[in-house]
Amino acid sequence: MGNKNKKKLKEFGSDYQKIYNAILDDMEEELEITEEEEIHYSDKSFEKDFAKGGNVTDGNISYLKELLKLQIQLVRLQEWVKQTGYKLLIIFEGRDAAGKGGVIKRITQRLNPRICKVVALSAPNERERTQWYFQRYVAHLPAAGEIVLFDRSWYNRAGVEKVMGFCTKEEYKDFLNTVPEFERMITRSGIHLVKYWFSLTDEEQEFRFNCRINDPLKRWKLSPMDLESRVRWEAYTKAKEAMFEKTNISEAPWNVVPAVDKKLARLNCISHLLSIVPYEEIKFPEVTLPQRKHDEDYRRNPTPPELIIPQIYY
Q: Beta partners for 148?
């Protein structure tokens, strides 16, 4: 076999492996549930080394073990936030298909949606366009005992609005000058603001977009705006660099998450989040399950058959 053919075969094998990994990642939520049975995380030794990190590329179980360790800590963080009245606000930014939604899903997967809330605002309506730019975001800031995750945020103005021409030059310039003080106001009010930027390569974004084009379960994720963002890759890069320069303040610095590998990005982001929030484990009082009371006259009536849904799976 010639060197040229060997190179093509090697490239094909590499692409095949990437596609296989992408499909496996889509199945992950089911795997994360079913494979828990193989991971005995009730054992105290399981959680002792949750922050040590290490190589998790030797199989899906290894990744899931680390994810579960981190999620146990997230549950503890949640309880501490609830008990202490802490206010935590986390912003997730990055290019399209960078993996923001994936890490948000893993953070919230085991948490109480009444305490940990996700905000993903659509484009502003006519009324909102006449408001102070930050107004619609302020309504979603956390109260005491809440965690709020923004899947994109006011930084839309520094990215998509700037690149696509959805705001004027004056509005863009005013935003970059205003946002540092706006965020200082947030932190002075007692909110802990954490900002993440998910960074991926041109090649990886192209691969993920092609997956979305060819996967009926992901096709809805791909918008005309995503396609246009591919054309304007370099303009987005310049906008990102200007954003970092103007808005990387000590009260709320940017944290860049290398995101070419989705699983590593999730683990490293969650681990970092746990490391910067000063949470402590809240001890729960021991719980004794009360006995059910039995009434001799109680009779449970059968459910009317017409109310029961068809049992097509058995």
A: 89, 117
Q: Could you read off the pLDDT of 78-123 as tens digits, one per residue?
A: 999 999 999 999 999 999 999 999 999 999 999 999 999 999 999 9
Give the integer Cα–Cα distance in Å for 203 and 25. Answer: 18
Position 136, amino acid: R
How much is the pTM?
0.84
The side-by-side arrangement of strands in the sheet containing 87-94 is 116-119, 146-151, 87-94, 191-199, 254-258
**Cα-based torsion angle of the residue sequence 52, 55, 58, 61 in order, rounded to the nearest 10 degrees:** 20
Kindly report the CA angle at 304 between 301 and 307, in degrees rounded to 5?
Answer: 130
- Pairwise CA distance, residues 150 & 81, whole Å: 18
Positive or negative CA dihedral for 252, 253, 255, 256? positive
Domains, the chain, with CATH or none:
3-280 (3.40.50.300)
Burial track 243-267 (b if 16+ CB lie within 10 A, e otherwise): beeebebeebebbebebbbbbbbbb
pLDDT tens string 167-194: 999 999 999 999 999 999 999 999 999 9
311, two tokens? 């049992």
Joined together, the tokens standing for residue 140 give 């979603």
